[in-house]
Amino acid sequence: MARKTKQEHLQELSDAVLDMDEERTVKAAHEALVEHVDPYDAIQGGLSDGMARAGQLFEDEEYFIPELLMCSDAMYAGLDVLKPHLKQVGESRGTVVIGVIEGDTHDIGKNMVRIMFETGGFKVIDLGRDVPPQRFVDTAREEQADIIALSTLMTTTMDGMGTVVRLLDEADIRDGIKVMVGGGPISPGFAKRIGADGYAVNAAEAVKVARELVA
């Protein structure tokens, strides 16, 4: 039997997540490791891709909340296999305060970004979901953070991101803290409009943007 290519391993991980199959996702994750697929690639090109596809089906009203939750369970099962094998970067690149803005409880994407930040050498303070703008500012000040990373999947909560930037300005600490935004409805234009310093379309991109911001 021919060995699978890297792309076939990634496709299998993505499909297993999309099919809400935890057992198959775990098996695919172990197989990818045995075949020396980089765990970072397996997470980003496999598990994360599957969740993105599930998110699209949700938007198209082909999947609903129960299906999305089962997809995320499969993704986390795969993450449990792959995460211990991620290579950690030695030196600290800075401190990131991350969370989902107030009014939104969707945190799957934020959790993926957090894992990539940690793997990329950042100290991460995860405030969770449904976080008031003032809490981001207070925590960033207390922790002397370099970056605040904000996410949302809802258009109705996007304004809260702009509030964080405004509160940083009012507290006179904006110069020392970079603000990154991301999530389904967020665009580079929106990021620019609210005065954010960076925008990322996915978890891997978020790490690249963060590194550039603290360089």
Can you give keywords for this protein?
single chain; 215 residues; alpha/beta; Methyltransferase, Methionine Synthase (B12-binding Domains), Chain A, domain 1; Rossmann fold; 2 domains; globular
Question: Could you characterize the architecture of this molecule?
Answer:
- The chain is an alpha/beta fold.
- It is 55% helix and 12% strand.
- The protein has a 5-stranded parallel beta sheet, with helices on both faces.
- Helix 2 (22-34) packs parallel to helix 4.
- The protein is globular, with a radius of gyration of 18 Å.
- The model has no long low-confidence stretch (mean pLDDT 92).
CATH level-3 fold name of the largest domain: Rossmann fold
Q: What would the principal axes of the Cα set say about the shape?
A: globular
Q: Report on the biggest sheet.
A: 5 strands, parallel
- Total of helices: 9
- Mean pLDDT equals 92
Topology:
Layout: H1 6-18, H2 22-34, H3 39-59, H4 65-82, E1 94-100, H5 108-119, E2 122-126, H6 133-143, E3 147-151, H7 159-170, E4 178-182, H8 188-194, E5 198-200, H9 203-214
Parallel strand pairs: 1-2, 1-3, 3-4, 4-5
Nutshell version of this structure?
The chain is an alpha/beta fold and about 220 residues long. Helices cover about 55% and strands about 10% of the residues. It folds into two domains: about 5-85, Methionine synthase domain (Methyltransferase, Methionine Synthase (B12-binding Domains), Chain A, domain 1), CATH 1.10.1240; about 95-215, Cobalamin-binding domain (Rossmann fold, 3-Layer(aba) Sandwich), CATH 3.40.50.
